Amino acid sequence: MSAAPLLAALFARALPGLAARDLGLPLGALLPWLPGTRAGVADAMALDPAERALLARFRQQGLPLLGLDPVAEAEPDPAWEEARDRLAWTPSGSPMPGASLTLVAGGTGQAPLADGLARILLLAGCDDAPERHDLLLPEPRLAEIYECLRAAAASLAGPGWQQGGRSLTPRQASLLLLVPRPGHVPDLLLPSAALPHDLPAPGGPAGLPLEGVRQLRLLPGALPPLRWRLRLNFAGAEPGPTALFLDGLRIPVRPVPGGLVASIDPPADRAPVLGLAWRDGAPPGLRLMALEARP
Length: 295
Prior knowledge:
The protein is built from five helices and 20 strands. The protein is of the alpha+beta class. It has an eight-stranded mixed β-sheet. Strands 11, 12, 14, 17, 18 and 20 form a six-stranded antiparallel β-sheet that branches.
């Protein structure tokens, strides 16, 4: 989904304090582009059993990924429940329960709107390969949300960008935000506390503790299929001899002071899984602090 970084920037600027859920795994969309996004699966039973089992191993801020553990999801989520604007990104065409805004990948086509709902048609991404997404929202908030998005699009637009929009009916509006190739793909800096991983410890501001760990998997989220330069930042110790894997295949990695550097080519159809391994366990005191990614 090449429009993901652009859409995330649009919503972050339009709706400060937004709480977001990305239910698009195994591909994803808003993770990692919209800070604070909780990741999950819209329909876990539709996944291949091996893929479902792999995703079930991951934790984000100590919690299972959404859609994989009904018991955990029944627990309160103050960040979600207390936010005025709650955005859910989904590949299905129905509003998500609990969300005030539902962003539907690929749009809803000609499906009629349910009573009380409005729709903003979003055409975003690269100007030679635009993507349609539909934002479903309560009808009384259409004018307010549309104006917030329109103003955010105008403030984001740079040289060569195309942006505009208009109200179509009392229940429908459209918004256009297109950029020249290669698109809007900013650098990423992801603190370890926000990264889904398969260790029991949740991590925090002091980093993710790795002492003695032999194997760690990270799920950075949806990365456009470009060549990316990754840097893993550590504290407390140097990482020492470390093997790095992309979707289970070992790739070259270079140690640098306080970190590891590698180049990856993520797949286009799913979020990559990064693996780290230490033959004798990670060194004493080692903590993963952040992942940096630059196209």
